[in-house]
Design a protein that fits this description.
five-stranded mixed beta sheet; five-stranded antiparallel beta sheet; alpha+beta; 10 strands; rod-shaped; about 210 residues
Length: about 210
Amino acid sequence: MTLRHLLLGLLLLCWSSAILAKDEYLLEMIVFQQPDAQDEPLAKPVAEVEQAKGSLDSGGPGIVPLPPGEGQLGSVAYTLQRHGAQVLAHLRWKQDFSVPGNDQWMHLEGKNIAGAVRITKGRFIHVNTDLWPTASEYPIREHGRLRSGELYYIDHPRIGILVQAERLEEAPQPAPQPAAEEAPPPPPVPTTDENPPEERKPASDMPRALPDNS
C-alpha cells in the first residue's frame, strides 16, 4: 500500500466519523395553563430556579433557538386557545445530543410562567420540568420520555406541556474522491535540424576530371 492510498483511507475514515458524530433533533414545546386555572397569580421569578444554567431563548451548548412560528405545533397552540387554554410558552430549538453540556437545565420563561426544563437522550428522549405556575404552590416537577416523531403530553391540574422531538437526518455528503493519477509525461520528440548537412558521396562516386590533351 502506497502512502497516497494510506492517506486516502485516513481521509475517508475521518469523513465518515464526522458524519456519524452529530445526534441532532428538532424539539418543540408548548406550555399552557388549563382553562380552569387562569385566576392564579404570576409564577416565581426565574432567578429563584437555581439549577437552570442557560436559557432556551439564548441557547447553550449544542442548542440553537428557532422561531416557534415555523414549527409544527402552531395549529395546536391555536386550537388550545380556542378551547379556553392560555398558551404560556411556545419554544422551538435544535439540540445536538453529541455536544458536551447539552443536557444542562435551561431557563424557561414565558407569559405567567417561569422555571426550567432539561432534555436528555438515552434509549428514549427524556423531558424533565421544574415549573412555577403560581407563587403559592409547589413547583411542578414532571418527567416523561418520548420517541422521535411522537407528540408527548404531560398533564397537571394547572399546567399542560406538549413536547415533540424529531430526528434531523443530515443530507449525505459526497465522499472525497481520490485525485486522478498523473499520467507519465510523453517521451521527448526528437528534434530535426532545419538545415541538415549535405550528404557526401563516396570518392568512388565522384566524377573524375578528364585528362587535358591540349
